[in-house]
Amino acid sequence: MFTIVPIFFVIVIGLIVFSVVRSIGQWSRNNGQPVLNVHARIVSKRTNVSHYHHDNDSIHDSSHTTYYVTFEVESGDRMELKVSGTEFGMLAEEDIGSLQFQGTRYLGFQREPNRMRAF
After folding, report:
1. Element (H or E) spanning 50, and its range?
2. Which uninterrupted H or E stretch holds 109?
């Protein structure tokens, strides 16, 4: 028991440090990328809901929703970008417009008035 608890503690701390370093690395790589504006079409939307159960005397479970939109550019390549809940609600599949992004960071989407145009 006295060896398992410290090992478990070191593993948990290691996972937290790894996650923080990975997030900082992604942030840095995104900052090094140019801001691009490309003609794109929204091909799909999805959500990922994470549930958290809190073990204490009060009954408080919580959840967090992450929103993703998949864009297809003129070359046929697709990219899935994480967006805010507000942006997610404003975007619709098959919307056509100008996508602005930097690396894996979504910056915005300007819809064209004619939504259903093909490339």
Report:
1. strand 36-53
2. strand 105-111
> For 4-81, where are the alpha helices, taking DSSP H only?
4-32
Match 């159960």 to its residue by tokens: 53
Location of structure tokens 């805010």: 84
Rounded-to-integer distance, Cα 72 and Cα 99, Å: 10
Secondary structure in 3-state letters for 61-104: EEEEEEEEEEEEECCCCEEEEEECHHHHHHCCCCCEEEEEEECC
Which residues, 6+ apart, have CB-to-CB distance to 32 below 8 Å?
Answer: 103
Half-sphere exposure in the Cβ direction for 95 (13 Å, CA):
21
Q: What is the pLDDT of residue 100?
A: 97
* pLDDT tens, position by position, 1-35: 678 888 888 898 999 999 899 888 888 888 889 99
